[in-house]
Design a protein that fits this description.
alpha/beta; Rossmann fold; 10 helices; globular
């Protein structure tokens, strides 16, 4: 159920530090308390359970998986939503958990929120991983039509089969019908209002001008067969962010984090642990 309205406050939208009472995202924490923190923001129509394949990373990292607003067990505030709202929700979560700085992994709409965070809250973002995402995803009419269909039906059930087909390659879906069924159920159970409002955020989104402003070391990951956000979208992101690295996981569709969890985990761990190595090198230098 949506949270009571008193949990949503009118926090100033121009600030990059948020209020824990503005909107508290449902979340789960795994991993050692002293390990580097990695926040995980999922795809449109998923819950934090989409990151189950990343739980092995909790041996080395402190994972904070969360549900976006309008998804899973998080609040469903009235729309419209913007990508900036999702980014501020993450900052509110960090504040509530007393996380001053962390790395961030985002897939799809989670990656869009990550772009906003990297540009608007550079002091809070250690390293970025942007997977199977886009800075601009026209046509806007497609997102309006999808939102309208979901609201009219009262559930994402009406678009579930078409969406899930884009999440997994046909071969993987055929070999893992249980995974497909679990993801489909996750999508169909999403609040219609929350899903539609997030569609609206993507409809109006254009983050391309923010990309050159991102200073955090950034890894961009593509699924080789992603029809939702094709490789060209991630290539544009990687070319625009100074020093970004681009990797392609094959074969994989939109939810490469599910379909090729081991490959994605290895890339993410290598990228995030570099921040720890840099910090140790700086500390050793300072002690000389």
């Amino acid at each position: 159920m949506p949270y009571p309205s008193e949990l949503i406050s009118n926090y100033p939208r121009g600030s990059v530090r948020s209020s824990a009472l503005r909107l508290m995202l449902d979340h789960e924490i795994s991993g050692p308390e002293d390990a580097p923190v990695l926040l995980l923001g999922g795809s449109l129509g998923t819950t934090l359970e989409m990151w189950d394949g990343q739980l092995p990373l909790a041996g080395r990292l402190r994972l904070v998986r969360f549900d976006h607003r309008g998804h899973g067990r998080s609040p469903v505030p009235p729309g419209p939503y913007e990508i900036a709202d999702l980014g501020r929700d993450v900052l509110a979560l960090m504040d509530a958990l007393a996380i001053e700085r962390a790395s961030y992994l985002g897939v799809s709409i989670g990656g869009m929120a990550g772009i906003w965070l990297g540009a608007h809250a550079p002091d809070r973002v250690e390293r970025l991983v942007l997977a199977c995402t886009s800075a601009h995803l026209p046509p806007a009419s497609a997102w309006r039509e999808r939102a309208a269909a979901v609201l009219a039906a009262g559930s994402p059930e009406v678009i579930a089969d078409g969406v899930v087909e884009r999440w997994l390659t046909p071969g993987y879906a055929a070999e893992h019908p249980d995974v497909r069924a679990r993801l489909r159920a996750m999508l169909a159970a999403t609040y219609a209002e929350g899903y539609a409002a997030c569609c609206g955020a993507i409809e109006r989104m254009d983050l391309r001008e923010l990309l050159p402003q991102i200073a955090a070391p950034t890894l961009v990951i593509s699924g080789s067969e992603d029809p939702a956000t094709p490789i060209e979208h991630q290539r544009l992101i990687a070319e625009a962010i100074p020093g970004a690295r681009h990797e392609v996981i094959a074969p994989a569709a939109h939810l490469a984090a599910v379909e090729r969890a081991d490959e994605l985990n290895a890339l993410v761990l290598d990228h995030v642990r570099r921040s720890t190595q840099v910090a140790r090198a700086r500390s050793a230098s300072d002690q000389r």
